[in-house]
Design goal:
Layout lengths: L1 H12 L3 H10 L8 H14 L3 H23 L9 H22 L5 H5 L26 E12 L8 E8 L3 H9 L2 E3 L2 E2 L1 E9 L15 E4 L2 E3 L21 E2 L11 E8 L5 E10 L2 H11 L1 E2 L1 H12 L11 E5 L12 E4 L8 E2 H10 L17 E4 H9 L5 E5 L4 E3 L22 H4 L24 H14 L22
Parallel strand pairs: 11-15
Antiparallel strand pairs: 1-10, 2-9, 3-4, 5-8, 5-10, 6-7, 6-9, 12-16, 13-14, 13-15, 16-17
Helix pairs in contact: 1-3, 1-4, 2-3, 4-5, 8-10, 9-11
């Protein structure tokens, strides 16, 4: 493969302007510019997008050019002393014979197939080679009405880091009427808009909106505001920019006049594509109403899902008899009103669809707050069983699903009494010794009473007890002299 790339690059370097234009037109790239620009564009094509069809095309152009040169060299020199008329006729005859001889010497080259697809210098892709188009992901809050400009690659015109790419288009009378007659979401913002979307040039999967560096958008004679960066609270973390469709409506001519859009962007190696769309912007309330219309899952289906979750697994040693589900939304810590979750989620816990849609309207992330996995709008469902439970169970914040699909509420347990079973010792009271039980005695009904420590005693008493124990251990060495009691007059030991 590396040898083929080197060979293709060498062949491209030897091409003339017409050959380069024919190659770039074959793949749908821009053919305008000077020769060194065309060469750069063709080399980039070979380096990053050299499919077998492109390599075959390069080889055909190369063989065609050098086959012409070899046939011209093999032609006999024209005879001297010819009239101009005879010379022109003979030259035309020679050109015809050259084509014939070239066709014989290189039978693999089909000239009608090679040159018949290009008329007046305009290239078209052959029917067999269909280049995949860049696709953008569908946005829940935007309904596409018209595609004004398909995703088109931003091609750098020179080696400068800052590039400009212009685009000129006009709205049809129907599109103008749609914009003018649409309602206002807020003062100066119509629900029907012309938006600009930018993404990576990648045809493998639908692309999310992604801005290039140093982006600036100019509509006619005014610059359009582009969403700024979110501030970062974490040190050392770069702030992120929310990449959303850019609304151009308020700066456009709502008439038959042409509008000019200029995108300024930073050329740092990555390839980007831009597209223009006529859309209708939706609100979270409208998405909620649509979800209530088409996204409610029947209670029986939800009950079957509960049974499936709690079904006994023969390979597992642990039997699950129930699963608890909270009736409090994990987003706002309030009781659920519209229980919702994604069909792709493995849990039964729901979140509130009202707050989830409102949060994604402000900052679209579409991540499940329970399992932190993607939960896009088209995967959301309203749990019909839990909705029914919420209306029947109003005095509990948690329920438990059982194996048979039934449920029971889990109410908060009452606080247990904390009154002690033994009498309360009042520190500093005169009848302390009267309240202290005997160490080996039993209380009422033959039950052992709790040990009570007299905190009024001096801490030195414990030290004396430890010293007495040491003295008993040392009785073998000889009798110890008696010690005087350290208690003051009027105090009695509790021991």
């Amino acid at each position: 493969m590396a040898a083929e790339l080197v060979e293709a690059k060498n062949m491209v370097m030897s091409f003339r302007v017409s050959d380069l234009q024919m190659l770039l037109g074959f793949v749908g790239r821009s053919k305008s510019g000077l020769k060194h620009e065309l060469v750069t564009r063709a080399l980039q094509l070979v380096q990053f997008d050299c499919s077998p069809e492109v390599f075959k095309k390069i080889k055909e152009l190369y063989e065609t050019r050098y086959a012409k040169k070899s046939s011209e060299a093999a032609q006999p020199q024209p005879q001297q002393h010819r009239s101009p008329e005879a010379l022109s006729i003979h030259s035309a005859y020679d050109r015809g014979s050259t084509v014939a001889r070239t066709s014989i010497s290189t039978p693999n080259i089909d000239y009608p197939a090679l040159y018949g697809k290009y008329l007046n210098g305009l290239g078209r892709l052959p029917p067999k080679v269909v280049k995949p188009e860049v696709r953008l992901v569908k946005l829940p809050f935007y309904t596409t009405l018209d595609e004004l400009l398909k995703p088109t690659e931003l091609v750098p015109q020179n080696n400068e880091k800052l590039q400009e790419s212009p685009c000129i288009f006009a709205l049809t009378p129907r599109q103008v009427e749609l914009i003018r007659n649409s309602r206002e979401l807020q003062p100066g913002v119509k629900s029907v808009q012309v938006v600009l979307r930018i993404c990576y040039t990648d045809t493998s999967a639908p692309q999310e909106d992604q801005y290039p560096p140093n982006i600036a958008v100019k509509v006619n004679h005014s610059y359009c505001s582009v969403p700024g960066y979110y501030p970062s609270n974490k040190p050392g973390v770069e702030p992120k920019r929310p990449c959303r469709p850019i609304n151009l409506t308020h700066l456009m001519y709502l008439s038959a006049a042409t509008n000019r859009i200029t995108v300024t962007w930073g050329n740092y190696g990555k390839s980007y594509s831009v597209g223009l769309y006529l859309v209708r912007q939706m609100t979270s309330a409208e998405l909620l109403q649509r979800l209530k219309t088409i996204g409610i899952k029947h209670p029986e289906l939800c009950k079957a899902l509960v049974k499936e979750k709690l079904r006994l697994d023969p390979d597992s040693e642990i039997a699950t008899t129930g699963v608890r589900v909270s009736l409090i939304c994990p987003l706002v810590k309030m009781r659920l009103s519209v229980p919702c979750r994604a069909e792709t989620c493995a849990h039964l816990q729901c979140f509130d669809a009202v707050f989830y849609l409102q949060m994604n309207e402000k900052k679209p992330t579409w991540m499940c707050p329970v399992c932190d996995k993607p939960a896009p709008y088209d995967q959301l469902i309203i749990d019909g069983l839990l909705s029914k439970i919420l209306t029947e169970c109003e005095d509990a914040d948690e329920i438990e699903y059982l194996v048979d699909g039934s449920w029971c509420p889990i109410r908060a347990e009452k606080e247990r009494s904390c009154s002690p079973q033994c009498p309360i010792l009042v520190l500093g009271s005169s009848d302390v010794n009267g309240l202290l039980p005997t160490p080996n005695g039993n209380g009422e009904n033959g039950k052992a009473t709790a040990d009570v420590v007299d905190l009024t005693l001096d801490s030195s008493s414990s030290e004396e007890e430890e010293e007495e124990d040491e003295e008993e251990d040392d009785d073998d060495d000889g009798p110890q002299p008696k010690r005087r009691c350290s208690y003051e007059k009027g105090l009695v030991s509790a021991c």
